[in-house]
Write a structure and sequence with these properties.
Layout lengths: L3 H13 L4 E7 L15 E7 L3 H5 L10 E5 L14 E8 L4 E8 H6 L4 E6 L8 E2 L12 H24 L2 H27 L19 H8 L7 H26 L5 H16 L9
Parallel strand pairs: 2-5
Antiparallel strand pairs: 1-2, 1-6, 3-4, 4-5, 6-7
């Protein structure tokens, strides 16, 4: 497997020796000093170019980066329409284990999307700075009272959909409702808790993947117990775990931020959820 130095040297060398490429920069996790390094980090690279057409039409150009296992052309995906005249990419899994996410972008397009980055090549002094290594853009943000209220309401309201889905044994619907409607509310609360405890100056990463660095092992284990197999009884149990954790964190966040938390709504929603679970198999009415 090529080392980080070998990969970056190759990326820089190709940029320096191709007149069409005027600048190059690294973004993503390898440009973020707060992200621990490991074998699976991608090389997210942007080549700043005058035009993308010649790169798009040259099918052999990408071969200079090494032997591939497989590749995706994200801008060719019909589900994600893109501005190929200004940005075009190759997502590459190499045979040696490295992965490169490479895009060629026009200057205006690149500058408009600059976030956290490290400049690798700048032939014409195009880049506004050599690097921007702060991940402040991704820090947990202090919520407004209305955001807190809506988050709690969304969580407790959507439980009734999970309940009826479980009674009908509509497992795909239930799992989508949990993971796309309810879980994001719980994760948001935990991000606020972490923000409060760290002066809203840390990022928990995509899907809160760094959450365990900022919360106790006890809370983290409680969160993991909100996941389940796609089986009716284990889903019921996992959702009750979600309810308990959500209630615990909601009270804590509301007290620390001096927000109002609707305990009546929470208790009624959880009671209804429990009641639906305990209905006889052939129940003809809810109450």
């Amino acid at each position: 497997m090529r080392s980080e130095k070998e990969m970056l040297d190759l990326i820089i060398d190709i940029a320096n020796n191709d007149v069409r490429i005027r600048a190059a920069y690294l973004e993503g996790s390898r440009a973020n000093p707060n992200v621990p390094k490991d074998l699976f980090q991608d090389y997210d690279v942007i080549y700043v170019v005058m035009e993308t057409k010649s790169f798009r039409e040259d099918k052999e150009w990408i071969n200079r980066f090494g032997k591939r296992l497989y590749m995706q052309y994200p801008e060719e995906n019909i589900y994600y329409p893109s501005d190929v005249e200004n940005c075009y990419g190759w997502l590459i899994q190499f045979a040696d284990g490295n992965r490169l996410d490479l895009h060629v972008c026009t200057l205006e397009y690149a500058l408009d999307s600059l976030e956290l980055y490290k400049t690798l090549v700048d032939k014409d002094n195009l880049m506004p700075a050599k690097q921007m290594l702060s991940d402040e853009r991704y820090w947990a943000r202090k919520p407004m009272p209305e955001q807190f209220r809506c988050t709690c309401n969304e969580f407790w309201w959507c439980l009734n959909n999970v309940a009826k889905g479980l009674r009908r044994e509509e497992i795909p619907y239930v799992m989508d409702m949990i993971n796309f409607q309810i879980r994001p509310m719980l994760r948001r609360l935990l991000e606020w808790k972490i923000g409060i405890e760290n002066n809203f100056s840390v990022s928990v990463g995509k899907s809160a993947k760094y959450m365990d660095k900022y919360i106790s092992k006890e809370i983290y284990q409680k969160y993991l117990r909100t996941y389940s197999l796609a089986q009716v009884n284990t889903i019921w149990d996992a959702v009750f775990n979600m309810c308990d954790l959500f209630g615990e964190i909601a009270i804590e966040v509301s007290e620390k931020l001096n927000f109002s938390y609707d305990l009546v709504e929470a208790d009624n929603s959880k009671s209804y959820f429990k009641h639906i679970r305990n209905l006889p198999p052939n129940a003809e009415k809810i109450y």
